[in-house]
Design a protein that fits this description.
Elements (H helix, E strand, L loop, with lengths): L13 E11 L30 E2 L1 H15 L8 E5 L6 E4 L7 H6 L4 E3 L7 E3 L7 E3 L2 E2 L7 H4 L8 E8 L6 E8 L5 E10 L7 H13 L14 E12 H5 L5 E7 L1 H15 L3
Helix pairs in contact: 1-4, 4-6
Length: 277
């Protein structure tokens, strides 16, 4: 929890910019949905941009970070969850509360209104909270898929992994295919944290905690079957105060060429020193 209250005044102090690389340690599948299925293609294709290159949607990365942080902070009990969708078989439950110091809601934003809890009385939220964290689409670095790798790929930039689901009674195999970005490929990531008050300073460590949790979890589909193991590298963290945007001050580079642990250690020691006008 933080020192935020309902009376905390919000005014932009500055922005923390985190940029770097997301490396695929195993094949990565961020699905495009069955709507993009092509004849002769994989059953489960990956999402691609207008040029046919795979990318990691910012919504996928942001959603995974939120899910991991909700679990880590004990916010997945039924009384802490609300329904975004109650369609049978497609239920979507996320954490939301009306506590002004709820770090997850501060980081990812909160809308006012009435929402049905999974368990307990409906949630009546009167205070809107602007999202502090923006996570951008991560484009593929084409040079990370080397000519040697391309020789063994099923497509120019992706591989197809074949899997079988086995019926426990008849032992009949139900084959399926999964399109993946191959191990060794990398994406360019960019996250921006808006600092709207001095009480926001601890939120940067929450973001870094989420990134470290993700490195020991999985991104995208098939995580329990070997896909989606990733690692962040060559991270650069910079600070841009309000003066940067009015042209009266320069960007301050806080650390470069680092992994998540190194950035986290720096910000645990010195976050408050940078969060100032």
């Amino acid at each position: 929890m933080t020192a935020h209250t309902n009376d905390t005044q919000l005014k932009l102090i500055g922005k923390l910019i985190l940029e770097g690389e997301l490396h695929c340690e195993t094949g990565l599948h961020v699905g495009a949905g069955k709507g993009s299925l092509e004849i002769g293609g994989a059953d489960n294709p990956v999402v691609k941009d207008a040029f046919g290159r795979p990318y990691v949607p910012g919504s996928s990365l942001r959603g995974k970070l939120r899910s991991l942080l909700e679990q880590a902070h004990g916010f997945t009990a039924p009384g802490e969850l609300v329904y975004l969708s109650k369609r049978k078989g497609q239920e979507v439950r996320i954490h939301q509360s009306d506590r002004p110091d709820d770090v997850v809601c501060l980081l990812f934003g909160r809308n006012p209104g009435r929402m049905e809890r999974v368990s307990g009385d409906p949630l009546e939220t009167r205070h809107a909270t602007p999202a502090r964290l923006a996570v951008y689409d991560a484009p593929l670095d084409p040079d990370s898929v080397t000519p040697q790798m391309r020789e063994n790929l099923d497509d120019e930039l992706t591989e197809v992994k074949s899997e079988n689901a086995i019926d426990r009674i008849t032992s009949q195999a139900n084959p399926r295919t999964l399109e993946r970005v191959p191990a060794g490929a990398s994406f360019k990531v960019r996250l921006v944290l808006d600092v709207l008050c001095e009480e926001d300073a601890p939120l940067v460590n929450l973001v870094l905690e989420g990134l470290r949790l993700l490195e020991d979890d999985a991104l995208g589909g098939g995580g329990s079957r070997g896909s989606g193991r990733i690692r962040f590298a060559n991270l650069r963290l910079s600070w841009r105060n309000r003066g940067y945007y009015s042209g009266t001050s320069e960007e301050a580079e806080l650390i470069a060429g680092a992994d998540v642990a190194a950035v986290q250690k720096l910000m645990q020691e010195k976050a408050d020193a940078y969060i100032q006008e």
